[in-house]
Amino acid sequence: MKPINVGLLGIGTVGGGTWTVLTRNQQEITRRAGRAINIVKVADKNLALAKQVTGGAVEITNDAFAVVNDPNVDIVVELIGGTTLAKDLVLKAIENGKHVVTANKALLALHGNEIFAAAQKQGVIVAFEAAVAGGIPIIKAVREGLAANRIEWIAGIINGTTNFILSEMRDKGLAFADVLKQAQNLGYAEADPTFDVEGVDAAHKLMILAAIGFGIPMQFDKAYIEGISKLSSTDIKYAEELGYRVKLLGITKRTDAGVELRVHPTLIPEKRLIANVNGAMNAVLVKGDAVGPTLYYGAGAGAEPTGSSVVADLVDVTRMATADPHQRVPHLAFQPDQLSDLPILPMSEVRSAYYLRLRAMDKPGVLAGVTRILGDLQISIDAMMQKEPADNETEADIVILSHITLEKNINQAIAQIEALSAISGKVTRIRMEELGK
After folding, report:
1. Residue 40, SS3?
2. Which CATH number fits domain 138-299: 3.10.450.50, 3.30.360.10, 3.30.470.20, 3.40.720.10?
3. What is the pLDDT, as a whole number, of residue 238?
4. 180-239 confidence digits (pLDDT tens)
5. Spatial separation of the C-alpha atoms in residues 131 and 109, rounded to whole Å
6. Is residue 253 flagged as an active site residue?
7. Position 393 pLDDT exceeds 90
8. Angle, CA of 83, 85 and 90, to the nearest 5°
9. Residue of 69, 214, 223, 239 with fewest CB within 10 Å of its CB?
10. What distance in Å separates the CA atoms of residue 194 and residue 88, rounded to the nearest whole number?
11. Four-way CATH pick for 4-135+303-338: 3.40.50.720, 1.20.58.110, 3.40.50.410, 3.60.140.10
């Protein structure tokens, strides 16, 4: 059978991993796909790097459009990143009737609706397993493996950089800034780490998971995003004392009122498996009504783990390329005309439990004032911890764990607590999730 010809856009870390995995496992992949899958053309600005990685075995160019417009290329693999040139290249490939494989989560989160509509019109496939959680086959698991289920919620550690930082802060008691420098030195964090540490990267991935989990269009602008740059090692230590770990989670839930779509630091009971995922690893919990909670764990980044997912998509596209377009797995799991118009809830309408840390004067009546405010707003206290003031200090830390309540209620409570004369500075708030049911 005629081989499938692949054009590769970008041969950096993931592109190099894709080349390595496809080349090393060529025989096994051919047996699975039913025909050979060959990279025949590579585009990269760094021609020397492309020649080094490929050994000069294929045609190399610095013009990505030369690949997209090549009639001999059946599948275009987009690994250049970004949302401008990448978008133009992907849409042009689709226009030319080529299938597309991409690891570009930002592109899909921001422009997925347009891209999938164009692909449907042209009868081609856009595959994106590598866009979420690197080597973990989470897209296939949610979209196909759990197809019998009504997905209730998804919660994931889907950014390895932030998980490494939080693990180091917990294990070594270091400040965020110190661990960030360490992460940059080790290559876990970029020189500009904003997308990682402020939660944007995780939010891109979460939008994709929400879309395939609930069958909703991409609506990235409605996601709530909060990173870890303001987290204190003090709160990580107190959480530990109370039996919790702090993780940056992407959380999406289906509720009667709509869909929650949020990324933020979260306290998780230490007994949960996902709370014990450390270092740069990723993990995703998916709760289906029939199967219950399921956990997917593995390397969320890296050359070969992510390349593994890219090649898996190439195998899938090769298998499905000749199938009737109506018989293929839909891009967002649900048939295109069956997508839901469920609204994305504003953060004020989200329900969660909360960790609150306040700095208070060590004198009678302070705690009574705080509990009165919480009671007036129907916020129930689950646990409380008061730390003794240090020598020669007149203020102490008070930590309160609440039961589940509306975010807008906790916002009001925090504003009123901060207004008390006995409270010093701002109240620290971290959301809490049980993730058990």
Report:
1. strand
2. 3.30.360.10
3. 97
4. 999 999 888 889 999 999 999 999 999 999 999 999 999 999 999 999 999 999 999 999
5. 10
6. no
7. no
8. 85
9. 69
10. 25
11. 3.40.50.720
